[in-house]
Design a protein that fits this description.
Blueprint lengths: L1 H29 L3 E4 L4 E9 L3 E10 L4 E8 L11 E4 L6 E9 L5 H7 L4 E7 L6 E10 L5 E4 L2 E4 L8 E4 L12 E8 L5 E9 L2 E11 L5 E12 L5 E10 L20 E2 L8 E5 L2 E5 L4 E3 L3 E14 L1 E7 L11 E15 L13 E8 L5 E9 L7 E24 L8 E12 L5 E8 L3 E7 L3 E5 L2 E8 L3 E12 L1
Parallel strand pairs: 1-4, 2-16, 14-24, 17-21, 22-28
Antiparallel strand pairs: 2-3, 3-13, 4-12, 5-13, 6-12, 7-8, 7-11, 8-9, 9-10, 14-15, 15-21, 16-19, 16-20, 18-19, 22-23, 23-26, 24-25, 26-27, 27-32, 28-31, 29-32, 30-31
Length: 493
């Protein structure tokens, strides 16, 4: 009875293994064929890049699909593609195929990856005798590739670096199906038409970013500038974009924060300049602004590229020297508040058509240059500007004045009797001495932020109330001389 049970068990196991073998063979025989689509299949490429390391790619290709279920492997996509955003469809035959499954293969072919995929499998180990030069071949099983390669050859175990060694190398039978030489998006589709189709793959990706950079040259009289705007593109997405239509969105687009797959890239340090300084076309897009390059451009992988954004000459500017105070010393008693205080150098211009501009300016760094007496261009400062709409004012701080300084002290402070319960009233007096070492007269704008309910009760130079918490004075300082501003402020808290 026991012997009969063993025989039946063996028969059952044999049937099970036979069925598994048959199913596996049929699956391999009936597995869908793969159509590999390369960059040469592209008919057009369009990229829209946002400020926040995000881009929308629209890749149009011409493909000849087989009827029925088929794998379509789209190579040369971004290595930082967000697969959940991908949309693959037919344009020439709408509804011509349905996407059943989608896979993004970012496990790229390399000697290390190939060895990893062959763990537990058989490879050929070729060895060359260093004396005779005779090459021998042995079958080996890859046991491990952690911190080195471990092979089982017959009844022995060998370790060491085999690939790349002068006397030995590993030979593989084939490349595993899920190991790609480039990032590949694979779609399992059910196709119903047989004619050549124009298909479109659109997706969002990281690794593409842009920022605006501006260069301004200040004239000798310091009352106008020539302005050039450049778009600096950076591509670390893992692929190149050949002859792409380029559009840029300026504005802060809301995004759901999530972890993107990290991709380590060594960005090339070279910078490719635009061939022609053709300003980009601008238009409104929802509450953002869209800039379009009127020609196709190529953005290579690991490349920084500059494209002309705008150009304008003789923009009127206003230079201003500003001394900014603080509001903390209006509630207490202080002596010397500051000696050799810095006087900031500012320039501003209007973003209007009348001023030769009048277009929305994306945020970026604006660098200012000026020629010296010998005609050599010198860098005189830079500042970051925010997104600036049309008809707004651009204001830049270039630095601090060298020849114009200030000393400030509190000359009096007292607490006045409380006119109302819970309200404190302070009165304090100040003297600001402004010094000018230049050979020409200068004007300094003194700005004092004052909190609470305030008033200037006495002063030697009239002030202007710039806003509810800011008082301002225009102080003229003769050449190689000094001027003192004195005032008394009363503040209620």
């Amino acid at each position: 009875m026991r012997l009969k049970f063993k025989r039946n068990s063996i028969c059952v196991l044999c049937c099970v293994f036979f069925n598994i073998y048959i199913a596996s063979a049929l699956a391999q025989e009936n597995s869908p064929s793969e159509l590999l689509s390369l960059a040469k299949d592209q008919q057009s490429l369009a990229i829209t890049i946002y400020n926040s390391n995000l881009a929308l790619v629209k890749d149009t290709r011409s493909l000849q699909l087989s009827k029925g279920i088929q794998l379509v492997a789209l190579r040369d996509v971004s290595a930082q593609i967000r697969p959940e955003t991908a949309l693959f469809k037919s344009i020439s035959a709408a509804g011509g195929f349905n996407v059943l499954e989608q896979n993004f293969d970012f496990d790229l072919l390399s000697p290390e990856k190939l060895l990893e995929k062959y763990v537990g499998k058989t490879v050929s180990l070729l060895k060359t005798n260093p004396v005779t030069g005779v090459e021998t071949s042995e079958q080996a099983t890859v046991l491990s590739v952690n911190n080195g390669t471990v092979l089982k050859i017959g009844n022995r175990i060998e370790t060491g670096p085999f690939n790349g060694s002068a006397n030995s190398r590993i030979v593989f039978d084939s490349i595993p199906a899920n190991l790609r030489d480039r990032p590949t998006l694979t779609n399992l589709v059910n196709n119903t038409v047989t004619q050549q189709q124009t298909v479109e793959l659109s997706y969002l990706t990281g690794g593409l970013s842009w920022k605006a950079d501006y260069v301004a040259e200040l004239n000798a009289k310091e009352d106008s500038i020539d302005l050039s705007g450049w778009v600096t593109l950076t591509n670390t997405s893992g692929t190149s974009y050949e002859h792409a239509k380029l559009q840029l969105v300026a504005g802060d687009v809301n995004r759901v924060q999530e972890q993107l797959r990290p991709m380590v890239k060594n960005m090339r340090s070279d910078m490719v300049m635009a061939e022609a300084a053709m300003p980009m076309q601008e238009e409104s897009l929802l509450e953002y602004h869209l800039y379009t390059l009127n020609r196709a451009t190529t953005i290579q992988d690991n490349q920084t590229k500059q494209v002309a954004l705008l150009s304008a000459q003789h923009i009127p500017v206003k230079k201003e020297l500003i001394l900014k105070g603080a509001n903390y010393y209006y509630q207490g008693q202080y002596g010397e508040i500051g000696t050799k205080m810095k006087v900031g150098v500012f320039v501003e211009f209007a973003n209007t058509e009348r001023a030769q501009l009048g277009i929305p300016l994306p945020k970026g760094v604006l660098r200012v240059y000026k020629k010296d007496n010998a005609g050599n261009t010198q860098f005189v400062g830079e500042d970051l500007i925010d997104h600036t709409p049309k008809n707004e004012t651009v204001r830049l701080k270039l630095g601090d004045a060298f020849d114009v300084t200030a000393d400030k002290k509190q000359t009096d402070f007292k607490v006045l009797p409380k006119p109302t319960k819970g309200i404190n009233t302070f009165e304090s007096a100040y003297e600001i001495t402004l010094k000018n070492a230049k050979k020409e007269k200068v004007t300094v704008t003194v700005q004092e932020p004052i909190s609470g309910d305030w008033s200037i009760v006495s002063e030697n130079i009239p002030h202007r109330k710039l806003n509810s918490q800011l008082a301002g004075w225009q102080v003229d300082i003769p050449a190689e001389s000094s001027t003192s501003l004195t005032y008394r402020a009363r503040v209620k808290f």
